[in-house]
Prior knowledge:
The chain is an alpha+beta fold and about 325 residues long. It contains 11 helices and 7 strands. The chain has 2 domains: about 1-175, Butyryl-Coa Dehydrogenase, subunit A, domain 1, CATH 1.10.540; about 180-320, Butyryl-CoA Dehydrogenase, subunit A, domain 3, CATH 1.20.140. It has helices spanning about 5-20, 25-30, 40-50, 65-80, 85-100, 105-115, 180-210, 220-250, 255-280, 290-300, 310-320, and strands spanning about 120, 125-130, 135-140, 145-155, 165-175, 210-215, 215. The chain has a 5-stranded mixed sheet, with helices on one face. A two-stranded antiparallel ribbon has the order 6-7. Helix 7 (about 180-210) runs antiparallel to helix 8 (about 220-250), helix 9 (about 255-280) runs antiparallel to helix 10 and helix 9 packs across helix 11. The protein is globular. The mean pLDDT is about 90. This is Acyl-CoA dehydrogenase.
Amino acid sequence: xAHNEERELLRQTVAAxxxxxxGPEAVRTAMESERGYDETxxxxxxxxxxxAALVVPEELGGAGGQLGDAAVVLEELGKALVPTPxxxxxxxxxxxxxxxxxxxxxxLEQLAEGGAIGTVVFDDEYAVNGDVADIVVxxxxxxxxxxxxxxxxxxxxxxxxxxxxxVTAEQTQEIGTDPGIAGYAAILLAAEQIGAASRCLELTVxxxxxxxxxxxxxxxxxxxxxxxxxxxxxxxxxxxxxEDAIQDAETAPxxxxxxxxxxxxxxxxxxxxxxAVQLHGGIAITWESDIQLYFKRAHGSxxxxxxxxxxxxxxxxxxF
Length: 320
């Protein structure tokens, strides 16, 4: 089976699970639960899709896939804003794999099965699913450390669909050189942002077709058609940049392509979410509407793992 066909099958399998188990009501139940995600759905993703095993080599109990496989799953989960601990877990796996000549096989196996939750702590204080993580790796950008003793607490955030935690190291051991985990994080988060932006745009287009004003659907007005076209172009262009960054990362990871992916994905998602609120009008900011959740996710994501301005500075430093 061709590589692309395998990835498409992976996408369809995840989409079917999300469709069945992660509708708007289920997402709200999950985000308000004690751990911040649906544990049953997480189990299904791990057992039926092997979501947490994708980047782990086969000899260490994984599926032997690539970064792009994890990106596909995160994009599909991003579409419906499904709260899961996948992003932190994949990053912890990549960090452990990069760490030393003898990676911690037991930890990797637990993460790959979905039995343990992982996170990576960057230089900011918030870690994705940090409050529920069992396996924690820290990085200062050059060295990786395994946090063998730590305390964690949930952090109050604007985006209820993504649980963040403050993790404090109590005991650490150095495990090796950082191969660019921040770049992998940027690319995976960008893929998730593209998924969310594309679904947010779909919902908005559908709303403008259904919403009637002055006796006709508002989507038939020329000005709105132009706005939809602009948003479609923004999302498509961002998707192309993110796909390039994924390909680069699978061969020769480049900090600049990761930074660029992050900037364009953040901009596209924020633009779409902002327009979605305007086009939906007052209903968009009611609790029942999903649009307010996309808006919060767009802004929460853009501030996560290094703000776009920091990524832009990194790009400028390389260009000039």
